[in-house]
C-alpha cells in the first residue's frame, strides 16, 4: 500500500506563538519561561532552564507549550522545528508557529523530523527582504507523507542513531585537536 500524502493542516493544528508587549525582562522569581528564536539557534532541543523567566501578568492563562507540541521558527533563513518534551511552564513567542498533531496516526516526533528535512524546508514559501519569514499558510500546505506508525518509529530511531553518531564524531574531532595541541606544545618545549 503506497504512502498517502497529506497537507500538514490535515494532520495537525497550527497556531502562532504569543505576542509579548515590550521587552522581556528576566525575573528569577517569575513563573513562566519564554522561548525565543535565539534559544534555538545553537540548540537542537528546548532547554527550559536556559530560557528567560518572566512573571505572567496577563488577564488570561499563559498559552503554555504542551509535551509533544512542535515549535517551528517562523523568521530567518532556517525554519527549524523542535519537539517540546519538557514539563515546565514555557510560552513560545510570536516568532514561532506551534504545531500540534491532531491524529493518532501521526507521531509528533515524525512530524518534527519531516519538517526539518531539507526538501521540506525548501518547500516553504518565504517572504521579506531583510529578514525572511514563512507564512502560516505555507506551513499548512506542506506535503507530509504518512507511512504506518511502525515506519514512523523506525525513521525516528534511525535519526536518533545518526544524531548520536554526529555527536560522537564531533567529540572525537575535539579530542583529536586537544591531543594534537598537547603534542605540539610538548615538542616545542623539548
From TrEMBL:
Gene3D superfamilies attached to this UniProt entry: DNA methylase specificity domains
Type I restriction modification DNA specificity domain location: 4-157
Pfam family, one: Methylase_S
Record's keyword terms, sorted: DNA-binding, Endonuclease, Hydrolase, Nuclease, Restriction system
One record GO biological process: DNA restriction-modification system
InterPro entries linked to this entry: Restrct_endonuc_typeI_TRD, Restrct_endonuc_typeI_TRD_sf, Type-I_RS_S_subunit
GO molecular-function terms, A-Z: DNA binding; endonuclease activity
Family, similarity comment: Belongs to the type-I restriction system S methylase family.
Name the record gives this protein: Restriction endonuclease subunit S
Native source organism of the sequence: Pseudomonas kielensis
Amino acid at each position: 500500500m503506497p504512502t498517502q500524502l497529506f497537507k500538514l493542516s490535515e494532520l495537525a493544528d497550527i497556531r502562532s506563538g504569543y505576542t509579548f508587549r515590550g521587552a522581556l525582562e528576566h525575573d528569577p522569581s517569575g513563573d513562566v519561561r519564554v522561548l525565543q528564536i535565539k534559544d534555538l539557534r545553537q540548540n537542537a532541543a528546548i532547554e527550559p532552564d536556559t530560557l528567560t523567566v518572566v512573571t505572567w501578568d496577563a488577564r488570561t492563562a499563559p498559552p503554555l507549550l504542551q509535551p509533544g507540541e512542535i515549535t517551528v521558527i517562523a523568521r530567518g533563513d532556517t525554519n527549524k522545528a523542535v519537539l517540546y518534551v519538557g514539563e515546565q511552564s514555557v510560552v513560545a513567542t510570536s516568532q514561532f508557529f506551534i504545531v500540534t498533531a491532531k491524529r493518532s496516526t501521526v507521531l509528533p516526533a515524525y512530524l518534527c523530523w519531516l519538517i526539518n528535512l531539507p526538501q521540506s524546508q525548501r518547500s516553504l514559501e518565504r517572504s521579506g527582504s531583510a529578514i525572511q519569514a514563512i507564512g502560516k499558510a505555507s506551513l499548512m500546505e506542506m506535503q507530509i507523507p504518512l507511512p504506518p506508525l511502525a515506519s514512523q518509529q523506525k525513521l525516528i530511531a534511525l535519526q536518533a542513531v545518526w544524531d548520536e553518531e554526529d555527536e560522537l564524531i564531533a567529540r572525537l574531532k575535539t579530542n583529536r585537536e586537544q591531543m594534537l595541541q598537547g603534542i605540539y606544545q610538548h615538542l616545542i618545549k623539548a
